[in-house]
Amino acid sequence: MNYNYKLGIIGAGNMAKAIANGIVDSKLIDKSKIIATDPFADLGIDGVVTHKDNTLVLNDCEYILLAVKPQIYNEIAKEIGSNCKAKHIISIMAGITYDGIKKYFPNANVTRVMPNTPCKLKKGMTAIRKNDNIPQEEKDFVKSIFDSIGKTIYLEEELFHAVTAVSGSGPAYVYMFIEGMIESGVKMGMSAEDAKTCVLQTFAGSIGMVESENTPICDLINAVCSKGGTTIQAVESFRQDNLYEIIDSAMVKCRNRSEELGK
Q1: What is the pTM of this model?
Q2: Long-range contacts of 37-42 (CB under 8 A, 24+ apart)
Q3: Which pLDDT tens digit goes with each residue over 89-104?
């Protein structure tokens, strides 16, 4: 579906660019109706001009996407909030609550979303805050934006700190595990290129197995292991080192930081 809206994007980082590319590629709105602002960066999309003045989005844009770091949100919100005529604010900022956004934009509908960086490849995961008080057409437009760059789910706001730790920050954990496996392969004599090929295909195939098999993950793990074999040696080592507890501890720290940013 095509929409005849104007969208202002405040912030021109990687996530803003991924979202804007999804909108342009899916033809949700014409790129001539996208206005980006950032004093230090350019969105880098042909036909979309990036301005340095945030106030340029205040009067003409029905929708505004807040794509700035949460640490500078209050400064920007004070600059534009009271004068903003947009009917809908979309925020991708980690930790900043619905109430924290509504405080500065009291006359606009507000939707919090939490995407992740694979949105750049249109393989992102985005959580959208549930809000039954927003008109259906506005909800559909917001969902369509993030459907254009991956999968979406609706969640209650109290789960947003958790989803930040799970999928918002999750790619970094996956990259670390990939990097660790590649480095170990190299230490055992493989070339970096061959190790990378093996690891990436192993991840891709394993994800496919989880998605396609109607089997608990624990059973998939056991299916690779055989008594007295090779795999069980690594799996038992992970268990003895409390791998799951290490993962949980790290993700809890990530969630806690999200909660701190929202205060």
Answers
A1: 0.91
A2: 37/8, 37/9, 37/10, 37/11, 37/12, 38/10, 38/11, 38/12, 38/13, 41/12, 41/13, 42/12
A3: 999 998 899 999 999 9
